[in-house]
Amino acid sequence: MSVDIVDRVERRAPAVSFGVTTLAALVALGVLALTVRGNFVPGVAALGALLVSVAAWRGDVRWITYGCLILALALVVAATRSPSPPVAAMVGIAVALCLAWDVGRYGAALAEQVGTGAATERAELTHAGFSAAVGVGIAGVSYGLFRSFGGLSTVGTLGLLIGAALLVGSIRLRS
Questions:
Q1: Helix (H) or strand (E) holding 10
Q2: Tens digit of each residue's pLDDT (9 = 90 or more) over 110-128
Q3: 3-class SS at 65?
Q4: Are 150 and 160 spatial neighbours (Cβ–Cβ below 8 Å)?
Q5: 8 inside domain
Q6: Which pLDDT value is given to residue 15?
């Protein structure tokens, strides 16, 4: 008689990463819900935020990504359906989404590598702080370019797109 023993790694994210990821997703949801009223976008965004939070608790990188994609889709729909979208709010939502995605993935990877019992609070806080600083810095520069070139002009929009590319690129480089 043989007994199969399977070593299971506990797949729960560290508490700090879970908290920062959930908070960032809820900030994105809250700002989006306050910005867009009366259609399905806040409901879709709530689904994305819930998915991000549950996936962050479980330490599931794939579902964190799916939840952030749902939130990003809600952001794009909200921005395109509005005749004059509040660009500063939209940029803030994008930064919160990138922060949720980056910190959630980091927490899941950390839990997988060192386990959930290890003392990782300082590493998590350092990572979250630098991620937020990079996101806010890039968003500030790209929003400044947007405003300096007259808002919703071609050059202003190009400044926002360059900022978005830099933000995603900076996250990918540190991963």
A1: none
A2: 888 887 777 888 989 999 9
A3: helix
A4: no
A5: no
A6: 84
Q: How far is CA 160 from CA 2, 79, 84, 141, 147, in A?
A: 61, 13, 15, 9, 10
Q: What is the pLDDT of residue 152?
A: 66
- Structural domain includes residue 71: yes
Helix and strand numbers (H, E) in the chain are 6, 0
Number of domains in the chain: 1
**Domain interval for residue 26:** 15-109+121-174
How many C-beta neighbours within 10 Å does residue 87 have? 17
Query: Please, are residues 155 and 149 in contact by the beta-carbon 8 Å criterion?
Result: yes
pLDDT of residue 171: 64
Asked if 116 and 14 count as a contact pair (C-beta separation under 8 A), the reply is yes
Tell whether pTM > 0.85: no
